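Throughout this chapter, every protein is written as a compact record of paired, labelled lines. An example of such a record is reproduced below:
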Amino acid sequence: MTSAPEPSLDQVFQAISDPTRRGLVEILIRGPASVSSLARPFDMTLSAVMQHLQVLIDSGLVTTEKVGRVRTCRIDVTALRRAEAWLSGQRTVWEHRLDRLDLLLSTPTPSDRTGRPDMTDRSVLVSSFAIERTYPAGPDRVFAAWADPRSKARWFAGTNAEHHELDFRPGGVEVTRGKNPEGKPLTFESRYHDIVPAERIVYSSALLVERNPVTISVTTVQFQPTDGGTTLLLTEQDTFLDGHEQPEWRESGTNGWLTALMHELAATVTP
């Protein structure tokens, strides 16, 4: 098997800047493929496809292995995670800044009789959302990615987390610690209430900033077998306190780590 050693982030972004190479990556995320099968969907010669693959190999996104006359390509999820971590960090910072600015511009500032802002205001916002994803792996494998502490740390906690621990059992607790964009201590703590292997997970969570709860949630994750894979349905009910977090931020973040789960499963696909 060959792979480019420690490619730079610039190489990764340059590799996926081309639509053909992005198409190759999207195919390989679904599982390993031979060079000839990769070339079929594209209106170009096998030689041209090989040139694109070489760019992906040099960037560290793809590895290849030749057995007999067949060369098989696979995604190396490490490079994807580095690019995603960088983009996620930038997106989080700017979304937070823009949403805070929008909140400041759209919300009248209450004041007391002296005209000073009233710093004792409190608010409660209750909302819910549901996300459905289909993964090219059976329910047992998708469920295992939630149950295994090392796997869960990779795709859920990510590289920005300072600490992650998982006690995956009814009554068990999962804790992730890090910092928010302002550098304040951030803790996400979940308690598992119901676990049916390969069928469902139910847990409640609290997001705390400097030990102060800002969002309380209840989440249900269901796993349904489909042809060649699993449909995952995540339903979450949230209570947002005092405007520290917004519903769209929570849903966007959940979408982000469900995409990371896709990459985690792709990295452990067996031929």
